[in-house]
Amino acid sequence: MEIKYLSHSCFEFNSNGKRLLTDPFLTDNPKAKISPEDLNPDYIILTHGHSDHVADAEGIAIRTGCLLIGVFEVMQWYQKKGIENVHGLNFGGKLHLDGYSLKYLQAHHSSSMPDGSYGGNPGSFIIDDGEVKIFFAGDTSLHYDLKMFGEVCKPDISILPIGGNYTMDIDDAIIAAQYLGTNKVIGCHYDTMPIIEINHDNAISAFTSTGISLELIEIGGSLTV
Fold first, then answer.
1. What are the residues whose beta carbons fall under 8 Å from the beta carbon of 190, sequence distance 6 or more?
2. What is the CB neighbour count within 10 angstroms for residue 42?
3. CB-based burial of residue 15 (10 Å sphere; 0-12 exposed, 13-18 middle, 19+ buried)?
4. With CB atoms counted within 10 Å of each terminal CB, which end of the chain scores lower, N or C?
5. What's the pLDDT band for 90 if we cut at 50, 70, 90?
C-alpha cells in the first residue's frame, strides 16, 4: 500500500489498483500543494462533517463519480445535494469494497456540516487492504475504547491527530498508540493553522522515547507499507 499525505487529515491510499481518499480539505487549505482537480479517487471516506474534513468532497464526488462513504447522517446530507453514489455507515458497520474493507468506529469529537446541519456521530476507520490494517482516527480525543480497538482489530499502523486544541496532542497520541498496540504512527491534523502547530523534532523524540516511531510525511510525499 502507498500512503500519500496531502496535508491536514487528507491522505490518498493506493492499493490493489484502487485509490481511497480521506477527508479532502485542499481548496482553502494554506498548506495544500495540489488542487482537488488533480485527484481521481475510487472512494472517499469522511470521518465527520466539519469543513476542514469535507470541504472538497462534493466537488470531487461530482466530477469523478467516486463512492462517498461516511456516517449515515452525513451521507443523507450529500444525497439531498444530489449525490447518489454514497454509502452510509454507523458504529460497528463494515463495508467490503474492491480493494479494501472498511470498518467504522467511535471517535470522541463533535460533528456538524458546513451549513450547520446535524453531522451525525464523528468516527474513525479501520482501513484494510488484505495485507496492511490501518487505524485512521479522524479527529478524536484520547478515549479508552481505543484499547478495545487494538485488542479486537489489531491494526498495524495508526494515523493519529497530534496537533492538540481540537484533537489529541502528542502526549495523548502516544497513549492512544499504546492502547492500539501499534508501534508505528503517522501524524495528521497538525501545522495547518497556527493553533495546531507543533515542533517536529520534539514530537518525534517524544514518540521515540516510548519505543514508537512517528512518521511526519512531507506534504505531497508518500511512503509504502
1. 161, 162, 163, 196, 197, 198
2. 18
3. buried
4. C
5. very high
The predicted pLDDT at position 159 comes to 99
Grid cell digits, residue 66: 467516486
Q: How does pLDDT run across 109-153, given as a tens digit for each residue?
A: 999 999 999 999 999 999 999 999 999 999 999 999 999 999 999
Residue 25 and residue 174: Cα distance in Å, rounded?
Answer: 25
How many CA atoms lie less than 13 Å away from 219 in the CB half-sphere? 19
Could you tell me the pLDDT band of residue 27, with boundaries at 50, 70 and 90? Answer: very high
**Cα gap 32→36, rounded to integer Å:** 10
* CA 35-115-108 angle, 5° bins: 85
How open is the CA angle 192-9-60, to the nearest 5 degrees?
A: 110
Q: Do 90 and 104 meet the contact criterion of CB atoms below 8 Å apart? A: yes
Helix, strand, or coil here: 184?
A: strand
Q: Are 207 and 214 in contact (CB under 8 A)?
A: yes
Give the DSSP H/E element, type plus range, for residue 175.
helix 170-180
Question: Quick count: other Cβ atoms within 10 Å of Cβ 181?
Answer: 17
Which DSSP category does 217 fall into? P
Report field, pTM of the whole predicted structure over 0.85: yes
